[in-house]
Amino acid sequence: MEREKASPADVIVRVNDAVLTTEDVDDMLPEGERMPFTPEEKTALIDRWVEMELLHQEALRRGLRNDPKVRARLESLEREFLADHLAFLELRDRIAVSEEEVEEYFERHRDEYLYEYRVSHILLNTYEEAQAARELIRTKGFAWVANRYSVDPVARRGGDLGYLTKGNMIPAFETVVFDMQPGEISDIVRSEFGYHIIMLVGVREASVKVELDDVRERLMNELVMQRREAAYHDLVERLRAAADIEYPGLDRFVPAPAVLDTAFTDTSGVDTTDYGEETP
Predict the structure, then answer these.
(1) Residue 217: which of 97, 121, 57 has the closest Cα?
(2) Is residue 192 part of a domain?
């Protein structure tokens, strides 16, 4: 990094006309993450910077900055960085969670910690597959569909996940399971893993009593994530509402999917094993 007026006392290393200063090192780390470096980490950082600066200077010497593909990539990286930094600036003051909020949340959801929930699920890769599976459940049963079509190998046997408690389910499950009755099957639920169909098999009292101190840190993180997602969604929607957005070439770029009567072929004639429904 070039700093013409950098104080010699601040310069850590020099490569030709480029210098790395203590201020540069501070700028490399996001706010709130500026933990003290160990000697080994300092050495690794300096070595990495020297290597990158040597390569960077050689790339400039060869004129690679003028390559159209390089220019396009640099513009894309700049756009992504500016967008991410705007989101950071907009969200950082809107996602703070107080101790009082954590305590209030725990009290509102205390009853959910009193029970264990036996859950089965079917995991599919696409929404269309989940729709087809949901229809097959009506005639074949939940366990039959889970055994043949669920892509979750852990829960393949009837989809049974065993007894779960609040905190050891994925968030997408918790928003659904706590409002279900034993024997009830959910609509299609999306998560970062794919598309789920959930069945609540049974409920029993929890074997271990959970107090606030047991889950305080997890609740704090959960509330921060919820607030971050809501604030980000609000920011994007406000910007979307104020912008002029058109999709003139969308149909050519993303053709409409073919209408599927079903995403699966009934294989009951091939596999005659009667797995039956799992019983609690």
Answers:
(1) 97
(2) yes
196 and 114: one domain? yes
Range 272-277 average pLDDT:
38
For the chain, the domain total comes to 2
Per the prediction, the chain carries an average pLDDT of 82
pLDDT at res. 187:
93
pTM: 0.56
Same domain, 120 and 198: yes
Instruction: Give a yes or no: residue 238 inside a domain.
Output: no
Range of the domain at 165: 107-205
pLDDT at 274 over 80: no
Q: Which of 66, 87, 116 is at the close of a domain?
A: 66
- pLDDT category of residue 276 using cuts at 50, 70 and 90: very low
- pLDDT grade for 248, boundaries at 50, 70 and 90: confident
